[in-house]
Amino acid sequence: MTTPAAWRQPRAILWATVGVAALGFLIALEIFARRRAGIPGPLTEQAKETIFAPKPGPLYAGLALTMVVLTWRQRFIAAGAAIGIDVVFVLVRRAVDAKVADGHLFGNGALWVMLGYAVIAVTRRSGPERVLLLKGVGLGLLLAVGRKTGDIWLLITAKTRPVVLDQYVATADQALGNPSWLLGRILQATDPIGTHVLGLVYAQLAVAAVVVALYQLRGVGVEGRFPRHHLVRTFLVIGLLGPGIYMLFPVVGPVFAYGPGASGTGGVHWAVADLWPHTPPPVTAPHPMSYDEITPRNCMPSLHTAWATAIFIHTRKGPRTLRYAGTFWLVATLGATLGFGYHYGTDLIAGVVFALTIEVALRSLDRGWDRSGVRLVAYGTAVFAVLLVSYRYLPTEMAGRPWLFGPLLILAMASVIHRYVRITELWEPKAAPAPRPDPRPELV
C-alpha cells in the first residue's frame, strides 16, 4: 500500500503552505493595523486573552471544535479543565478588584486548554495522531483568531475609509423597491416580538454555524480524519475575503446613512437625512459622503447573508430538523439585515453570489479542478464584479428603470444559484442501482 504514503507528502506540503500563509497574513495585518490605523492587531489582541478577560463565546466555540478530535473521556477532561481555569481567573480578578468589560467574565480557560493540547500534540503524540490533534487545535484557534481578525478589519475600514458610497447603493436599491425601508416598517410594527426574535438570530449566527459544524464533524474522533469539506472552511474564507471588499466598496448601511443610528448615539450628524425607514430616499445624483471613524464600512457585500447562505447549503444533507433550522436561519437573517437597517437589498444579492462562488471554489479545491468548477467560479466572480460596478456607476439608471434593472439583479443572482445547484448535483456520487435477481425458469 504505497498510495497513502505518496498522497501524504503533498498533502503535508499543502498544510504547511497554508499554515505559513495564514501566519504571514496575520503578521501583515498586525503591522498594517498598527501603522495605518494605530490599533493593536489580531495577534496582540489574541495574546492578551491568555491573561485579560475575553469574550467567552468565540473561545469556547473554538474549544468545542477542537474537541471533535478527542474521545469522550478527553472531552470531559478538557471541558472540566477549561471551566476550572476560568473559575481561578474569576476569583483572582475579584480578589484584586480588576475591572472587566460587560460580558467579559470568562473564556481564558478555553484558550489555555487549546494551547495545552497543541503542546501535547507536539511533545506527546506522533504520526497521524499528532496531525489529527494539531488540525483540531488549529481549527479551534482559527475560529478564535478569525473573530479577532474580523474585528480588527472592521476598525481598519472605519479609520482608513473616511468616504462612503451609501448614496450610490441606496439609489441602486430603488430598482428593488427599497426593501430595507419596507422591512424596517414591518419590523417596527411587530415590535417587540419580531425585533427580539430577529435580533437573537442576527447576533447568534456564529452559534448556529458551530452547531452545524459539530454535526458535520461528529465522526472525526472515531474515523481519525476530517471530512473533505465542511462549513468551518467556508465560514473562515468568507470572513477572510469579505473585509477586503469592504475596503474597495465602503458602505455603512441605511440606519447609519439615512437614519437615527448615524452617530451611534441616536443623532443624525453624519447622515444624509433622517429618512429610514419611513421615507424612501429621493432619486438624485449620488455623491461620496464623509463619515465618522467609528462605524465599520461592512455592508458590501452582506457577510451575514453570505454566512447564512453557507449554513443553509451545509444543512441540506442533515436530518430534517437541521434542514428546517438552516432554512429558518437564512430567512430570518435576511429579514434582520434589512429590517434593522444594517443592509440594502443590493448587499444581500452580492452576498449570495459571493458565498456560492467561494463554496464552489472550496469544493473544487477538494475534489480537483475540472471545467465545470472553473467555469462556475469564473462566472460567479464575473457576476459579483458586474454587480459592484453597476452599483457604483449605474445607480441613477437603475433607479430610473426599476422594471428593467430590478428583474436583472434578481436574474443575475438566480443564474448563479441555478448553475450551482446543477453542477453540484452532477458532482454528487450516484448510488449504485440494486442488483436484480437472475431470472429463473418456471415450471409450466
Per-chain topology:
Elements: H1 3-37, H2 42-48, H3 56-66, H4 72-95, H5 108-124, H6 127-160, E1 163-164, H7 166-172, H8 179-189, H9 193-203, H10 205-216, H11 220-223, H12 231-248, H13 254-257, E2 289-290, H14 303-314, H15 320-339, H16 345-367, H17 371-393, H18 395-400, H19 402-427
Antiparallel strand pairs: 1-2
Helix pairs in contact: 1-6, 2-6, 3-5, 3-6, 3-10, 4-5, 5-6, 6-12, 7-17, 8-15, 9-15, 10-14, 12-14, 12-16, 14-15, 14-16, 16-17, 16-19, 17-19
Can you walk me through this structure?
It contains 19 helices and 2 strands. The chain has helices at residues 3-37, 42-48, 56-66, 72-95, 108-124, 127-160, 166-172, 179-189, 193-203, 205-216, 220-223, 231-248, 254-257, 303-314, 320-339, 345-367, 371-393, 395-400, 402-427; strands spanning 163-164, 289-290. The protein has a two-stranded antiparallel sheet with strand order 1-2. Helix 10 packs parallel to helix 14 and helix 16 (345-367) packs parallel to helix 19. The N and C termini lie far apart (54 Å).
